[in-house]
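Re-run with default settings, no changes from the original entry. Doing this only to confirm the output is reproducible before filing.
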Amino acid sequence: MNTDKRHRFPSDIVSYAVWLYYRFNLSYRDIEDLLAERGIIVTRESIRLWCIKFGALYARRLKRNHRGYGDTFYIDEVFVKINGKRHYLWRAVDQDGEVVDVYLQAKRDGAAAKRFFRRLLRSHGGDPRKIVTDKLRSDGVAHLEMTPETIHGTKQYENNRAEQSHESTRVRERGMRKFKLVGQAQRFVNAHAAVSNLFNLGRHLVRAQHYRELRISAFTEWKRAVA
Protein backbone atom coordinates (compact mmCIF):
# COMPACT_ATOMS: atom_id res chain seq x y z
CA MET A 1 0.00 0.00 0.00
CA ASN A 2 1.37 3.42 -0.96
CA THR A 3 1.03 5.29 2.33
CA ASP A 4 3.02 8.34 1.22
CA LYS A 5 0.81 9.25 -1.74
CA ARG A 6 0.59 13.04 -2.24
CA HIS A 7 3.58 13.57 0.09
CA ARG A 8 6.66 15.40 -1.20
CA PHE A 9 9.11 13.14 0.60
CA PRO A 10 9.50 9.39 -0.07
CA SER A 11 8.21 6.86 2.44
CA ASP A 12 11.64 5.86 3.74
CA ILE A 13 12.30 9.43 4.95
CA VAL A 14 8.82 9.74 6.46
CA SER A 15 9.02 6.39 8.25
CA TYR A 16 12.55 7.14 9.48
CA ALA A 17 11.40 10.42 11.05
CA VAL A 18 8.42 8.71 12.68
CA TRP A 19 10.65 5.90 13.99
CA LEU A 20 13.08 8.41 15.51
CA TYR A 21 10.27 10.23 17.28
CA TYR A 22 8.62 7.19 18.85
CA ARG A 23 11.79 5.18 19.45
CA PHE A 24 13.89 7.86 21.16
CA ASN A 25 13.32 10.82 23.44
CA LEU A 26 13.62 13.38 20.64
CA SER A 27 11.64 16.50 19.83
CA TYR A 28 10.47 17.51 16.36
CA ARG A 29 13.25 20.11 16.34
CA ASP A 30 15.83 17.41 17.12
CA ILE A 31 14.63 15.27 14.22
CA GLU A 32 14.59 18.29 11.92
CA ASP A 33 18.29 18.82 12.69
CA LEU A 34 19.15 15.13 12.30
CA LEU A 35 17.54 15.07 8.86
CA ALA A 36 19.18 18.37 7.90
CA GLU A 37 22.59 16.86 8.70
CA ARG A 38 21.83 14.31 5.99
CA GLY A 39 20.83 17.01 3.53
CA ILE A 40 17.07 16.50 3.99
CA ILE A 41 15.41 19.86 4.57
CA VAL A 42 12.01 19.45 6.19
CA THR A 43 10.23 21.59 8.78
CA ARG A 44 9.39 20.38 12.27
CA GLU A 45 5.71 21.05 11.50
CA SER A 46 5.86 18.53 8.65
CA ILE A 47 7.48 16.02 10.99
CA ARG A 48 4.73 16.63 13.55
CA LEU A 49 2.04 15.94 10.95
CA TRP A 50 3.86 12.80 9.80
CA CYS A 51 3.98 11.50 13.36
CA ILE A 52 0.28 12.15 13.88
CA LYS A 53 -0.83 10.54 10.62
CA PHE A 54 1.64 7.72 10.12
CA GLY A 55 2.34 6.97 13.78
CA ALA A 56 -1.25 5.81 14.24
CA LEU A 57 -1.15 3.82 11.00
CA TYR A 58 2.11 2.06 11.82
CA ALA A 59 0.91 1.33 15.37
CA ARG A 60 -2.22 -0.41 14.09
CA ARG A 61 -0.18 -2.56 11.71
CA LEU A 62 2.36 -3.48 14.39
CA LYS A 63 -0.36 -4.42 16.86
CA ARG A 64 -2.21 -6.47 14.23
CA ASN A 65 0.96 -8.43 13.48
CA HIS A 66 2.08 -8.79 17.09
CA ARG A 67 3.26 -12.28 17.94
CA GLY A 68 1.02 -12.49 21.03
CA TYR A 69 1.16 -11.69 24.72
CA GLY A 70 1.87 -13.76 27.79
CA ASP A 71 -0.68 -15.25 30.14
CA THR A 72 -0.16 -12.84 33.06
CA PHE A 73 -1.22 -9.20 32.97
CA TYR A 74 0.04 -6.52 35.33
CA ILE A 75 -2.35 -3.56 35.50
CA ASP A 76 -1.74 -0.13 36.93
CA GLU A 77 -3.05 3.39 36.51
CA VAL A 78 -1.23 6.69 36.96
CA PHE A 79 -2.62 10.20 36.92
CA VAL A 80 -1.77 12.55 34.04
CA LYS A 81 -2.65 16.23 33.90
CA ILE A 82 -3.95 17.33 30.51
CA ASN A 83 -4.87 20.95 30.01
CA GLY A 84 -5.08 21.39 33.78
CA LYS A 85 -7.44 18.45 34.35
CA ARG A 86 -6.54 15.14 35.97
CA HIS A 87 -6.89 12.01 33.84
CA TYR A 88 -5.76 8.46 34.47
CA LEU A 89 -3.49 6.47 32.20
CA TRP A 90 -4.41 2.79 32.51
CA ARG A 91 -1.71 0.36 31.44
CA ALA A 92 -1.39 -3.41 31.21
CA VAL A 93 1.87 -5.25 30.56
CA ASP A 94 2.58 -8.97 30.42
CA GLN A 95 5.32 -10.92 32.20
CA ASP A 96 7.80 -10.07 29.43
CA GLY A 97 7.22 -6.32 29.75
CA GLU A 98 5.17 -6.11 26.55
CA VAL A 99 2.49 -3.40 26.69
CA VAL A 100 -0.85 -5.12 26.09
CA ASP A 101 -2.90 -1.94 26.16
CA VAL A 102 -2.71 1.65 27.37
CA TYR A 103 -5.78 3.83 27.70
CA LEU A 104 -6.56 7.33 28.99
CA GLN A 105 -9.72 7.83 31.01
CA ALA A 106 -11.14 10.66 33.08
CA LYS A 107 -11.81 8.42 36.08
CA ARG A 108 -10.63 5.26 37.80
CA ASP A 109 -13.94 4.03 39.17
CA GLY A 110 -15.61 0.67 38.57
CA ALA A 111 -17.01 1.70 35.17
CA ALA A 112 -13.56 2.83 34.00
CA ALA A 113 -11.97 -0.40 35.24
CA LYS A 114 -14.54 -2.54 33.42
CA ARG A 115 -14.04 -0.50 30.25
CA PHE A 116 -10.30 -1.14 30.40
CA PHE A 117 -10.72 -4.85 31.18
CA ARG A 118 -13.05 -5.13 28.18
CA ARG A 119 -10.36 -3.63 25.92
CA LEU A 120 -7.80 -6.03 27.36
CA LEU A 121 -9.91 -9.09 26.68
CA ARG A 122 -10.40 -7.95 23.07
CA SER A 123 -6.64 -7.44 22.66
CA HIS A 124 -5.81 -10.81 24.18
CA GLY A 125 -8.62 -12.78 22.59
CA GLY A 126 -9.62 -14.37 25.89
CA ASP A 127 -9.05 -14.39 29.63
CA PRO A 128 -5.43 -14.39 30.85
CA ARG A 129 -4.33 -16.97 33.42
CA LYS A 130 -3.58 -14.29 36.03
CA ILE A 131 -4.15 -10.58 36.55
CA VAL A 132 -2.03 -8.59 38.99
CA THR A 133 -3.22 -5.19 40.24
CA ASP A 134 -2.72 -2.93 43.22
CA LYS A 135 -5.44 -2.80 45.87
CA LEU A 136 -7.67 -0.38 43.96
CA ARG A 137 -11.22 -1.57 44.60
CA SER A 138 -12.33 -0.73 41.07
CA ASP A 139 -9.98 -3.39 39.71
CA GLY A 140 -11.49 -5.95 42.06
CA VAL A 141 -14.99 -5.09 40.87
CA ALA A 142 -13.98 -5.44 37.21
CA HIS A 143 -12.21 -8.75 37.93
CA LEU A 144 -15.21 -10.30 39.70
CA GLU A 145 -17.65 -9.26 36.98
CA MET A 146 -15.56 -9.87 33.87
CA THR A 147 -12.81 -12.41 34.65
CA PRO A 148 -14.01 -14.37 37.69
CA GLU A 149 -12.05 -17.51 36.73
CA THR A 150 -8.77 -15.63 36.42
CA ILE A 151 -6.32 -15.59 39.34
CA HIS A 152 -6.16 -12.11 40.88
CA GLY A 153 -2.95 -11.07 42.63
CA THR A 154 -2.72 -7.95 44.81
CA LYS A 155 0.37 -8.58 46.94
CA GLN A 156 2.65 -5.69 47.79
CA TYR A 157 5.37 -5.07 45.18
CA GLU A 158 3.87 -7.75 42.90
CA ASN A 159 2.68 -5.05 40.51
CA ASN A 160 6.04 -3.25 40.20
CA ARG A 161 6.38 -4.37 36.58
CA ALA A 162 3.38 -2.25 35.52
CA GLU A 163 4.37 0.70 37.68
CA GLN A 164 7.87 0.78 36.18
CA SER A 165 6.41 0.61 32.68
CA HIS A 166 4.92 4.09 33.19
CA GLU A 167 8.39 5.62 33.45
CA SER A 168 9.09 5.76 29.71
CA THR A 169 5.83 7.66 29.18
CA ARG A 170 6.68 10.02 32.03
CA VAL A 171 10.05 10.76 30.41
CA ARG A 172 8.41 11.61 27.11
CA GLU A 173 5.68 13.64 28.82
CA ARG A 174 8.34 15.83 30.45
CA GLY A 175 10.18 16.22 27.14
CA MET A 176 6.94 17.30 25.46
CA ARG A 177 6.18 19.72 28.33
CA LYS A 178 3.05 17.77 29.16
CA PHE A 179 0.25 16.55 26.94
CA LYS A 180 -2.08 19.27 25.67
CA LEU A 181 -5.11 17.27 24.50
CA VAL A 182 -6.57 13.88 25.40
CA GLY A 183 -6.69 12.77 21.75
CA GLN A 184 -3.09 13.79 21.21
CA ALA A 185 -2.00 11.92 24.34
CA GLN A 186 -3.89 8.75 23.38
CA ARG A 187 -2.42 8.75 19.88
CA PHE A 188 1.06 9.17 21.27
CA VAL A 189 0.86 6.42 23.91
CA ASN A 190 -0.64 3.97 21.39
CA ALA A 191 2.18 4.48 18.88
CA HIS A 192 4.87 4.68 21.54
CA ALA A 193 3.72 1.37 23.06
CA ALA A 194 3.66 -0.40 19.69
CA VAL A 195 7.18 0.74 18.77
CA SER A 196 8.49 -0.03 22.28
CA ASN A 197 7.07 -3.55 22.08
CA LEU A 198 8.78 -4.17 18.76
CA PHE A 199 12.17 -3.12 20.07
CA ASN A 200 11.72 -4.59 23.56
CA LEU A 201 14.52 -7.09 22.99
CA GLY A 202 15.82 -7.73 26.50
CA ARG A 203 19.33 -6.62 25.63
CA HIS A 204 20.59 -7.26 29.17
CA LEU A 205 19.27 -10.84 29.11
CA VAL A 206 20.85 -12.25 25.95
CA ARG A 207 24.26 -12.55 24.35
CA ALA A 208 25.40 -9.84 21.94
CA GLN A 209 25.04 -12.02 18.84
CA HIS A 210 21.52 -13.09 19.79
CA TYR A 211 20.59 -9.48 20.47
CA ARG A 212 21.83 -8.44 17.01
CA GLU A 213 19.72 -11.16 15.41
CA LEU A 214 16.65 -10.02 17.34
CA ARG A 215 17.31 -6.44 16.29
CA ILE A 216 17.51 -7.45 12.63
CA SER A 217 14.15 -9.22 13.00
CA ALA A 218 12.66 -6.12 14.63
CA PHE A 219 13.84 -3.89 11.79
CA THR A 220 12.45 -6.37 9.26
CA GLU A 221 9.05 -6.24 10.98
CA TRP A 222 9.21 -2.45 11.08
CA LYS A 223 9.89 -2.31 7.34
CA ARG A 224 6.86 -4.49 6.70
CA ALA A 225 4.70 -2.20 8.84
CA VAL A 226 5.76 0.98 7.05
CA ALA A 227 5.73 -0.40 3.50
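Helices lie at 11-23, 28-37, 44-64, 110-124, 137-146, 160-175, 182-198, 208-226. Residues 11-64 form one domain.
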